[in-house]
Specification:
Length: about 230
């Protein structure tokens, strides 16, 4: 069974406080003598034997082991067409579990959920919080960075001359035939109902097929990342 996992600013210090400290001490009821795992979310992880608990939100311990975990190759940025609110957090959660290194919200032509004004910052922060919690649950040493949303034209500029795949039910090329020996890769997930031909033309990404089934937008990134992982990263 894996050790309890918490996000810490400096895992090598063996200390945990703030909201994560409160979660460990008050919610999880971590006791002196227990071993826990601290992670920076930027690749540093440390196994710590707890030696001291202070109040309701602080603990300290002896660092048993501290390691730097490199990112997997290729680095995969998931471009996620923004789903309806009830599925948006699920999409981020699953993409994080699948190993996304970064997530970009995409306002596609067919996107129903429109982020405008104050909603932009609020929703981006919600996605970041979801990614953080999903990284903890899946014991990831790296928390994926969630970027500001982009339009189709902005996305086209971003991926120009870079390896970019778009999951598409009508694609003729299966993912297993794609050369994944690249340092970075964009994986584009369209909205419910699929990506229109006009946007495919604008993006100039490579359409690929995962299988005979049509995936929901919330789960497509996980399926794509799993396939990429099995073919190249794991």
């Amino acid at each position: 069974m894996s050790l309890p996992y918490f996000i810490a600013t400096d895992p090598a210090s063996g200390r945990l406080d703030g909201p994560e400290g409160r979660h460990a001490v008050t919610v999880k009821r971590i006791q002196v003598g227990e071993h826990i795992m601290l992670a920076s979310g930027r690749g540093t992880i440390a196994e710590v034997e707890v030696t001291q608990i202070t109040g309701k939100d602080e603990l300290a311990g002896t660092v048993v082991e501290c390691r730097e975990i490199p990112k997997l190759t290729p680095s995969v940025t998931v471009v996620q067409a923004i789903p309806k609110s009830e599925r948006a957090e699920l999409a981020v959660d699953l993409a994080t579990q699948g190993g996304a290194d970064a997530i970009i919200p995409w306002i596609s032509h067919r996107t129903i959920a429109r982020w405008q004004g104050p909603k932009v910052a609020k929703n981006v922060e919600k996605w970041r919080a979801t990614a953080r919690e999903a990284a903890k649950q899946s014991r990831r040493p790296w928390i994926p960075e969630v970027h500001e949303p982009v339009t189709t034209n902005q996305l086209a500029d971003l991926i120009r001359d870079k390896p970019a795949l778009v999951l598409h039910e009508d694609a003729a090329t299966p993912l297993r035939e794609i050369d994944l020996d690249v340092p970075e890769l964009f994986l584009i997930i369209g909205p419910e109902g699929g990506i229109g031909e006009d946007e495919l033309e604008i993006l100039q990404a490579t359409p690929v097929k995962l299988g005979p089934e049509v995936l929901r937008t919330a789960s497509a990134a996980l399926a794509g990342l799993s396939a990429i992982g099995a073919l190249s990263r794991w």
